[in-house]
Specification:
Layout lengths: L1 H17 L11 H79 L5 H15 L4 E7 L5 E7 L8 E3 L6 H9 L3 E2 H7 L12 E7 L2 E10 L7 H30 L2 E2 L4 E2 L1 H18 L17 H14 L17
Helix pairs in contact: 1-2, 3-6
Length: about 325
């Protein structure tokens, strides 16, 4: 606009100096002023268009900036949400793994056979506590010696040792305190200096009805698993094992004095011994013939309990009501 005004004034100046005022009365007529007026109008129109374009561009830039800011906010929210989802999935997977582990442990510790419980307890210590080298010692009938019944790893274990002289300070501390101990407890209790390269790290006694039953000794753990939470898990598994042992022991006492085995639905060997004496006396007195059939199952057969129950059902279905089907002296005989 200012440029147009300046050009108009220059134009009028030039016209003024070049005009012959003898023949022209004035230069401020429509003929002379048409061009300056058009230039001013054009400049005004162009200025207005420029102003509007600038305002529009600024408005678009502002919208773009706001959109960019919104996009950044949305991206941040998406990232935060993804992180939350990842943490949630991780927690969910950890909980699922925990549930699966608890279910497996519950099924394993439901066994009513002591030897199966010992095997499962040792396996659970390997899997849950991550014991790379460990040994389980069972107390002998003399109550003076521990005997090795389960072990893993490459260590050469002692097959037995005296309870009164275990030759391992951690095992001695475990027996003295009657509880789970770690090598850290030795460092706390005295100025302990390990002399054996294969020094035990964790130790837990196992009790059956308040009497010493065995002892679990761990010699090697991964560095990251040597933490208090793992020690607590070790102690919990041992307590669970002790309770299962107590139930199995009670069940064993009941079945020993029972005359009928509910698991395979036949009479027990104890009943057989009483029945065979009665039948023998009756046979002598009345001169009646009696027959005795024994069946033995291959001891290495898989799923022996299932097979025993099947054979018991077959025998019961193919004998008379006066005949008696009982267990044999061993678990694989009838």
């Amino acid at each position: 606009f200012n440029f147009s005004i300046t050009l108009s004034l220059v134009y009028l100046g030039l016209v003024h100096f070049q005009t012959d005022y003898k023949s022209v009365d004035s230069i401020f007529t429509l003929d002379y002023l048409t061009l300056p007026i058009l230039m001013v109008l054009i400049s005004v129109i162009l200025g207005e268009l420029k102003t509007r374009s600038i305002l529009h561009i600024r408005s678009v830039e502002k919208d773009l900036n706001e959109t960019g800011t919104s996009s950044d906010v949305l991206l941040k929210k998406v990232k935060d949400l993804s992180a939350d989802n990842y943490d949630l999935k991780k927690k969910l997977l950890n909980k699922l793994d925990t549930f699966k582990s608890v279910m497996t442990l519950t099924r394993g510790f439901q066994s009513l056979k002591s030897n199966e419980l010992v095997d499962f307890y040792f396996e659970s210590i390997q899997n849950e506590v991550n014991a790379r080298i460990a040994g389980f010692y069972l107390i002998r009938d003399d109550k003076e010696t521990f005997n090795l019944v389960k072990s893993n790893g490459v260590k050469e274990f002692r097959t037995e040792f005296l309870i009164s002289e275990p030759k391992d300070e951690l095992i001695q501390l475990c027996l003295d305190t009657r509880g789970t101990v770690s090598i850290r407890d030795l460092y706390k209790s005295n100025d302990f200096i390990p002399r054996d390269k294969e020094q035990s790290l964790l130790c837990s006694p196992v009790f059956l009805n308040e009497e010493l039953y065995g002892i679990m000794v761990i010699y090697d753990l991964p560095f990251l698993d040597y933490v208090p939470s793992n020690f607590a898990l070790f102690e919990i598994l041992t307590q669970w094992f002790e309770r299962s042992l107590a139930y199995a022991h009670k069940f064993s006492l009941l079945t020993t004095n029972s005359i009928f085995n509910n698991q395979i639905e036949v009479y027990t060997y104890q009943y057989f011994k009483e029945k065979i004496l009665e039948d023998y006396e009756a046979a002598k007195r009345y001169k009646i013939e009696h027959f005795l059939l024994t069946i033995e199952i291959e001891s290495k057969v898989d799923r022996l309990d299932t097979l025993r129950k099947f054979i018991a059902q077959v025998l019961k279905a193919n004998t008379r009501k006066t005949d008696v089907v009982t267990e044999g002296m061993n678990s694989n005989t009838f």
